[in-house]
Amino acid sequence: MKEKILLVIISIILIIFVSYFIPKENFSFGSTITAKISNVTLELVVADTDKKRTLGLSGLEKFPPQSGGMIFIFDEPDYLSFWMKDMKFPIDIIWFDESKRIVNLEENLSPDTYPQVFTSQVLAKYVLEVPANFVFKNKIKIGDQIYF
Hints:
The protein has helices at residues 2-21, 50-55, 134-137; strands at 32-37, 40-47, 69-78, 81-83, 91-96, 102-109, 117-119, 124-131, 146-147. By secondary structure, the protein is an alpha+beta fold.
């Protein structure tokens, strides 16, 4: 248990350290995938590199046009932590395990929550950021699955 807590703390420190030294340049949102969750089909921007995962949606004035969300794809399952650093609009965050089932949800997170960190309580491999109230409007719940 102490090892897991230490790993989470080290991960948070690493995220903080990296976020201050990576330039806030815009990167291309070129790579997308189509996904389905709870009878809703979404076109998702893919964040599958360290740079894209670190930047995420931070610094944007609004959700990317013609995007249903951003999917963060990690190499290995972990206790994944997110925060609202440099965010300018509220979002919902959804964590998925290796089998693409929802294991954690955070709804209507405001940019004002920064520097609070939101961490999955179980191992997750995928994280989805969607516009605020998406979870509520679409009755998304723990155990639902995403297909892509």
